[in-house]
Amino acid sequence: MKFDVIAKTRNLQGTSASRRLRGAGLVPGIVYGEGQAAVAIEMDHKDLLLGLRHEAFHSSVLTLKLDGKDEPVLLRDVQVHPVRTQVLHVDFQRVDPTHKVHIKVPLHFVNAETCPGVKLSHGIASHAMTEAEVLCLPADLPEFITVDMGQLTVGASIHLSQVVVPAGVEFAALHAGTDPVVASVVAPKGGAAEEAAPAA
User: What residues contact 183, with CB distance under 8 A and at least 6 apart?
Assistant: First the structure.
């Protein structure tokens, strides 16, 4: 999925200027990186909010249309109001198509309900991670990574090294020498005694 973010350069800065922008239905932000000067920007709140509601918006290379010029960027930070549904500020980072990016990608779990540990032993599927940091070129960045739990038995787990990733993508944790647990199937509360109760 491709996303466009339409913005323009923000000339007035400071707390009061940002407050006036928000009152006018705009969101202040900044774009930085790739050896260029940081640029203060502003964009429509409704359009940005619609984008943020898509999971892929947070883990995709976005096209920032700034003053008529297109730039590939990643969403790096979002500040939201603690009570109202209002975006207060956003940060975007420029990306170079020839350099790898480091970003979190959501994990989608499949076949948890039909795996032996859940279907036959009445275990409980547990997700230790819901997203993972990846390293890849911008063109190879996946919207999400699928974790297949179909073979798990009670007490078994899947480590990050066992998760299949698209070509050109690697997990940052593995690159750093760690291999955390991603998902597992745990025994039901009460264990065998709980299962024996219906039989009695």
Answer: 109, 112, 125, 126, 127, 128, 129, 147, 149, 152, 157, 158
